[in-house]
From TrEMBL:
PANTHER family: ABC TRANSPORTER RELATED (PTHR24220:SF685), IMPORT ATP-BINDING PROTEIN (PTHR24220)
Keyword Nucleotide-binding: yes
Name under which the protein is recorded: ABC transporter ATP-binding protein
GO MF assignments: ATP binding; ATP hydrolysis activity; transmembrane transporter activity
Keywords, in A-Z order: ATP-binding, Nucleotide-binding, Transport
Keyword Cell cycle: no
Length: 232
């Protein structure tokens, strides 16, 4: 059962002498209910691959699927709809709206999509991530780790097919980072959530079920059930 798939994906930025080939025929299948980490040196194409899989960026050649839905050839409007309904995002910089409370931030994607919240599911996510007593706080009243946990709840509350996390622990100390990673891993174990995470950090990658290594725009290696030692 595959939650997202890249089939011979090429991505070329620019043209002529300024041309950059960011992805060179990438094939990757992301199994449903698994936590996949994407690692590789800076400039190896990690962000580009994630953006293509999430429908944030178009591919130059090849095909991308989320569930059974083929993204390649969709209009911008269809892609926007897909991102609202099937995909969740977690960013390095949290990207919370400063004037909204934690609860309002968490429910905003549902509100924008005009979807009704499932209160029972909201409660389950909040209690699992431990944010019950922080729901009325604004981002500036929360620690970095708490803000990222709010962002995790926001990503999960719409029950997306896939959650994409781009360096989710990049701005956190190791303790807050471990809490966030522990929650992401639990959401895979307990809720069957599918997660794809880009990271530079071998310790973060060790929380995943599988690590895909990119170099120079191609998949060069893969590791199942990683430990931090093995990732290094
Ligand atoms: P990573 O996430 O592994 O650091 P990226 O996917 O950001 O790698 O970048 C892969 C390559 O594509 C790099 O050479 C980068 O400079 C280039 N690149 C990424 N985005 C763009 C863009 N919008 N325009 C031009 N080149 C880009
Ligand atoms: P990340 O920290 O996620 O790897 P980057 O710093 O590589 O992000 O890129 C930040 C933004 O700039 C991204 O949207 C990426 O597509 C774009 N970008 C990266 N490299 C280039 C480039 N060489 N030319 C133009 N845009 C780029």
């Amino acid at each position: 059962d595959i939650a997202a798939r890249a089939v011979d994906v090429w991505k070329v930025y620019g043209s002529g002498e300024a041309q950059v080939v960011a992805l060179r025929g990438v094939n990757v299948e992301l199994a449903r209910g698994r936590f996949t980490a994407i690692m590789g040196p800076s400039g190896s194409g990690k962000s580009t691959l994630m953006h293509c899989l999430a429908g944030l960026d178009s591919v130059t050649r090849g095909e991308v699927y989320v569930g059974d839905t083929k993204l390649t050839g969709m209009s911008d409007r269809q892609l926007t709809e897909l991102r609202r309904t099937k995909v969740g995002f977690i960013f390095q910089q949290f990207n919370l709206l400063p004037t909204l409370s934690a609860e309002e931030n968490i429910l905003l994607p549902l509100a924008i999509a005009g979807r009704k919240e499932d209160r029972q599911w909201f409660d389950t996510v909040i209690d699992t991530i431990g944010l019950r007593d922080r729901l009325g706080h604004r981002p500036s009243q929360l620690s970095g780790g708490q803000q990222q946990r709010v962002a995790c709840a926001r990503a999960l509350v719409s029950r997306p097919e896939v959650v994409f996390a781009d360096e989710p622990t990049g701005n956190l100390d190791s303790r807050s980072g471990a809490e966030v990673l522990g929650f992401l891993r639990n959401s895979v174990r307990e809720f069957g959530q599918t997660i794809v995470m880009v990271t530079h950090d071998p310790n973060a990658a060790s929380y995943a079920d599988r690590v895909v290594f990119l170099a120079d725009g191609a998949v060069v290696d893969e590791l199942v059930d990683p430990t931090a030692d093995a990732v290094l």
